[in-house]
Amino acid sequence: MSRLELFAQPRWRKTGNVYFPVAARVDGRWWVLRLNSFPDHALWTLFVEGVPYFDIDGLPTTWGQPLDRSVPMLETGTIEEVLAPVRDFVTYGSEVGQPCDNPFCCG
Q1: 103 found inside a domain
Q2: How far apart are CA 96 and CA 76, in angstroms?
Q3: Which of 34, 76, 80, 91 is the most buried (most CB within 10 A)?
Q4: pLDDT given for residue 1 in this prediction
C-alpha cells in the first residue's frame, strides 16, 4: 500500500453508481471509491485502475468532499470504462476473494 495517494488532490466526478459513487483521473490512472457498509467495515475502499489499494474511514483533506452536490457527473461512456474493472467488487472483501456474507451489513 502506497501512502502517496493520501497527499493527492483528486478531482472527483460522480458515476451515478450507488456502490462506486465517484471516480477521479489522477496521474493518468482512474481512482474509484467504493462506499462500504459502515461501521461494520471501513467507510471507503480506494481502487486504482481496478486494484484495491486500501480501506479508509476518514478521507484526507486533500481529497476534498467527493459526495458534495457540486461534484460534476462523468460522461456516460467514461462511467462504463471506469467502473468495468470494479464491477464485480460491490460486496466488501470481494476484491480479495473474501466477500462479506453478513446479511446485516452486506446482505
Answers
A1: no
A2: 28
A3: 34
A4: 44
The CA distances from residue 76 to 10, 14, 36, 83, in Å, are 20, 10, 23, 11
DSSP-derived 3-state class of residue 22: strand
Cis peptide before 39 (omega within 30 of 0): yes
- From first to last of its 107 residues, the chain has per-residue pLDDT tens of 457 788 899 999 999 999 999 999 999 999 999 999 988 999 999 999 999 999 999 999 999 999 999 999 999 999 999 999 999 999 999 999 999 999 888 87
- Alpha-carbon gap, residue 88 to 83, rounded angstroms: 9
Query: In this structure, is residue 85 part of a structural domain?
Result: yes
Cell output for 96: 480479495
Domain of residue 62 covers 4-96
Place of cell 484495491: 52
